[in-house]
Specification:
six-stranded antiparallel sheet; 2 domains; 10 strands; 9 helices; Outer membrane efflux proteins (OEP)
Length: 484
Amino acid sequence: MSRVTQVSLFLLLVFLSAGLRAQRAINLDEALEIAREHSPDIRLAKLNLERSRELLKAQEAGLKSRFSLTLRPFAFSRDREFNTFFSTWNTSEIKQSSGTFVVSQPLIWTDGTIALRNQFNWRDSFTEYQNVRSKTFSNNLFLAYDQPIFTYNRTALALRDVELDLENARLNYMLQELLLELNVARSFYTVYQDRMSLQVAKEELVNREKSFEIIKNKVDAGLSAREELLQAELDLTSSRSQVQNNEVALANALDEFKKQIGLPIEEDINVMAAIGEQPVSVDLQKALQEGLKNRIELRERKIDIETAKSNVVRSEATNEFKGNISLSYGIIGNDEEFTGIYNTPTRNQQASISFEVPIWDWGEQESRIRAAVASVRSSQLTLEEQKRDIIIGVRRAVRNLKNLEIQIELAKKNVEIAELTYEINLERYENGDLTSMDLNLFQNQLSQKKIGLIDALINYKIALLNLKIESLWDFEKNKSVINE
């Protein structure tokens, strides 16, 4: 072999090995990880979760002490008014600067607010009457407390609403993950099913090629009619066409699968699955217990009930009788010199209580309360129906799983019998006791039984995943889905 030939062969082997390495093998777990990063539904649920989390942070931050500073560096006003007491016109000018510093603290357990306020003011005033000018500094420092009475705690209820919204967002995210797992699994096993169908078609093609060689040798030896060779050739052509059709179906399924999980369409991938495992032991009572304890939909319905009850509280506050208590205590001082503001301070005290008394609202409050109570009852009924649906869904999933175990065993027996039948009839075909059309029937039967076994195994995997979603318990790993 020449050196040029050796180099060419080496480059060809490198190219082929690079092409083989380029194909990416993906199992179901890897496909799920990829889908979680690229799925639009998951990304939307993540954004919704982030929104709810930030709203809760904002609500909690609003319950901490608030510091504010309001500055009014300069203000000027000139007015001319008629003084009726002296029957003369008077012009006045005022220049002033002021600032207010406030520290306020909402009280979640009472819905009240306590605040420390300091108001500083400088004023330069002039009045034309008696030609008087006055420059003064003043400062008012006081502690104030406002407390609503005879009404519900709006601060606590608002915080609870945001907490429930965050919990609901978390539940929605978990539900989207479960639905994504189911959809990806179905698409994954569809690709695997097409791949196995292609493998069965190739095995059928090998058998057809073998039978074609047998009948060709017989025809050439004059032991069989030429019509048998034509039929075998037709069967061989049909098998080749079936292989091509399955290759196209597999390529199309791979494209759809890559689109669903978010891989580039041009990337060369293959799927790997272990579907020939032993049946998983399933406990109906365990599945029911975990489903009724952990199902996301049940917690969502309970959140709906809590939200509806909050609306009842708000409805009861429509045109309600309520009041407010305001208390303040402080000192105020003023002087022409800044340093002498508090030389002669004055106590500043205030106390007040006020009430809002509705007289007649034409039945608005009563109607709103009835509507809110009806919403609570509706949510409670929905919760009960959801529990029944979960029980039915779990029982159906367990029954389906048990039935599929039987179907798998039956499919395995059918494949064994079909293989044995084909081998026996192939021998009869070789001996001239069977026509090619008869052998074709046994070949088709063998292919159908193999595909039937693949379908049964895939259906079992899907049913097991469906039970996982119904019960939120992974019987394959024997652990709760919620803990994940």
